[in-house]
Every structure is written in structure tokens, then in C-alpha cells.
Amino acid sequence: MSNNLSELMADLKEQEALDLVKAQLEQGMDPKEILAACQQGMVLVGEKFEQGSFYVSDLMMSGEIFKTINEILAPKLTGDAVAKGDKIVVGTVGGDIHDIGKDLVVAMLKSGGFEVQDLGVDVPAAKFVEALKESGAKVLALSCLLTTAYDSIKATIAALEEAGMRNQIKVIIGGGPVDGQVVKYTGADAFGSDAQAAVRLSREMMA
């Protein structure tokens, strides 16, 4: 049944997936197994996106399905049942309020098993530094859509350096206009062209 759930997730069949999750819980299936099947479904969604058969709108819909299933499973995933993955701090940098791309990255990272701290949009550099100190996260994912926000990325990385944390933190950047030149300009470690790339880069950096 778990495999069926993965396929339903990958085919974006929301109602059928939700009905199956509820049925599996009623039958006493371990919620961790159900969550694992959902995560596998999101992996399949990411593969379809990379192959060009899915679009951003499909990623957004899959993220909503995953979020809804998480809400159903959350009360069942308590105590030791909650698997805590590697931590990542995510946010849209200061001066930029775009959140669609950031939210997609957050959804894909969560489906990939990461523990994500989403700081929202228009986040000042100091808040990123504070969140990294408190969480112990080793990866920072910065989003921006406006070219005018490149300086905010640069300022955030400079703030990491001032705090003596730059050598311990890997910085991934992403957003519509971001490319290798922006990585060089800002001092980031890498850029992701889409949400799936952000997941892949995060895994590589934590390996």
C-alpha cells in the first residue's frame, strides 16, 4: 500500500492519496512508514520535474498535498516517532518579499527529511545569524527574486564572517535570476536552479 501512496503522490491524485493515508492509519500502519511513502512520492515528483514532465505548478500542488498529509500524520508522530533530519535555515533575504520559490524549496526539503527553519521573507542578515546559532544548522539557503537583493545576500554572508561562522556554514542561494556569477559576487558556496536542486545540494553539503 505504501508503494501505491508514493504513486498517488507522484501522480498528484490528492483525494485518493488522502483517503489512502486515513485508511492506512485506521488499519494501524506505522505513521513513519506512511510518511516515508509520501517522501518517496515527493522524490518521484522531483524526478518528473527534472525530466521536464512536471512544471512549477505541479511542484506547488505536490507541496500542498505533502503539507496536508503531514498535518494528518503530525499528531501520530510524537516523541521518538519523530525523525529529526539535518537542519537547514531558509529565508528570502532583506529587501525581497517573494515567497513562492522559497516555499517550494521548504516543501521539498521537508519531504526530503530535512528539519527546516523557515524565517519567511525580507529577513535581515542578523536574523539569519541568530537562527543559525540557535539551531546549530550547517546549511543556509537564501532566496531572492530581485536583482537588487544580491547585496542583501552579500551582506548576510558578510554577517556570517563577522560572527566567525562562515567556515562552519554552507550557503546555497537560489531564485529566478541567480546563477554562477551571483555566487561569485556574493561569496556563496553554490546556487540551485530549482527546488529539487536545492535538495540535492543540501544532501551533498551534509555528506
Write the layout of secondary structure elements.
Elements lengths: L1 H9 L3 H13 L4 H21 L4 H18 L13 E6 L7 H12 L3 E4 L6 H11 L3 E5 L6 H13 L7 E5 L5 H7 L3 E3 L2 H12 L1
Q: So what's the overall shape?
A: globular
List the total number of helices: 9
Helix % is: 55-70%
Q: H/E series, N to C?
A: HHHHEHEHEHEHEH
Name the beta content range: 5-15%
Average pLDDT: 88
Biggest sheet architecture: 5 strands, parallel
**Amino- and carboxy-terminal Cα gap:** 31 Å
Radius of gyration: 18 Å
Give me the side-by-side strand order of the main sheet: 2-1-3-4-5
Low-confidence stretches: 79-83
Describe the structure.
This protein is an alpha/beta fold and 207 residues long. Helices cover 56% and strands 11% of the residues. The chain has helices at 2-10, 14-26, 31-51, 56-73, 100-111, 125-135, 150-162, 180-186, 195-206, and strands spanning 87-92, 115-118, 139-143, 170-174, 190-192. It has a five-stranded parallel sheet with strand order 2-1-3-4-5, sandwiched between helices. It is globular, with a radius of gyration of 18 Å. The two termini are 31 Å apart.
List keywords for this structure.
9 helices; 5-stranded parallel sheet; alpha/beta; 207 residues
